[in-house]
Amino acid sequence: MQLIQILIIGTNKPIMETIARLIDRDGIWQATIAFSIDDAFDVCLLKDFKIVLIGAGIDEDEELKLKAHLVKSKPNLPIVKHYGGGSGLLFAEIHQALNSNTKH
Amino acid sequence: MAQTVVHKANTRGVADHGWLKSYQSFSFAGYYNPERINFGALRVLNDDIVTGGKGFGEHPHDNMEIISIPLEGELQHKDSMGNTATIKAGEIQVMSAGTGIYHSEYNPDATKPAKFLQIWLFPNKRNVTPRYDQIEVNTANKQNEFVQILSPNKDDAGVWIYQDAWFNLANFDANTTKTYSFHKEGNGLYVFVLKGKVEVNGEALDTRDGFGIWDTNSVEIKAIADAEFLLMEVPMEF
Fold first, then answer.
1. What residues bind Fe cation, as annotated (chain B) (predicted)?
2. Spatial CA neighbour of A5 closest among A44, A56, A37
């Protein structure tokens, strides 16, 4: 079975690692962490990501920069803000994003 | 015309982890219902019962306004900012998780469960410096009144958060009727009945029922029987 690839971006290392662990635990999703938008620019072209989650420490300008970067190559890739920093909202955010046809 | 939504108590999500029983008004953790994601900025309303001597081990949060209202028993709080505190019924705790915080919440009494509401609101500002606060709620001589316990203003009654939200607790005698006036245009009101029976906008609500109303400036609330309830005014767009 092919795993659904999820890119998570945030500057808080322990929280990003927790979120990645929660995503990977599901068995159908796989997380890749980027600790900055610059890292994300490089990483997002390496895999066929289905969702990008924006975590803590990434500001609006950086998020807009990422959207602008991806608008041509991956116009339908949902880029959503993650809230809560743990399992509470994570699964609903992923389900919602997978069911959306987000355009930047 | 006002729009409304009713969430009857028995339609909430339920998670039973043995040490924790959680009744969830909105999608949370393993409970996912696309029709129950949020009410405006109100994202989580968990009605939690923690077994004596058990609790939530250290875990992280970010970018969320987290409010805990103990209903029975106590919780012992510890966090990564160095705060150690105990909260009990009659108090309210708030955390702005911002860039990230770790905390634990334990029921220190091995003999009694701790019951509390865990409420999460989307913040109006991301990546703020984390903060913690708790206060005692003064409800003395305030029977049949709305008692403000939360607002966006540091110098107002109750705790404050990074959101244009106002919370009130109320303890009404049967047949008391009061009108709640909204603080801000565009906000909605979510009523959660803690005990008893109330009528809001003609809708009869029992214990632990939830009722949301928006596109209006005021709401009439009547206690059909003696009742305690929580009013959460939150932005519908944020």
1. 59, 61, 103, 105
2. A44
B118: nearest CA partner in chain A: A88
Residue A104 domain flag: no
Instruction: Specify the fold of B12-136.
Output: Jelly Rolls (2.60.120)
Which residue type is seen at A79?
I
Fold classification of B146-235 is Jelly Rolls (2.60.120)
Contact residues on chain B for A9, CB-CB shorter than 8 A: none
Range of the domain at A53: 4-98
In this complex, the residue of B43, B61, B122 whose CB is nearest that of residue A85 is B61
> Contact A83/B100, CB-based, under 8 Å?
no
Rg (Cα) of chain A, in Å, rounded?
A: 12
Flag whether residue B27 sits within 8 Å of chain A, measured between CB atoms: yes
ipTM for this prediction: 0.90
Q: How far is CA A68 from CA A41, B182, B233, in A?
A: 11, 39, 36
Find the CB nearest A56 among B30, B43, B100: B100
pLDDT in tens, A19-66: 999 999 989 999 999 999 999 988 988 899 999 999 999 999 999 999
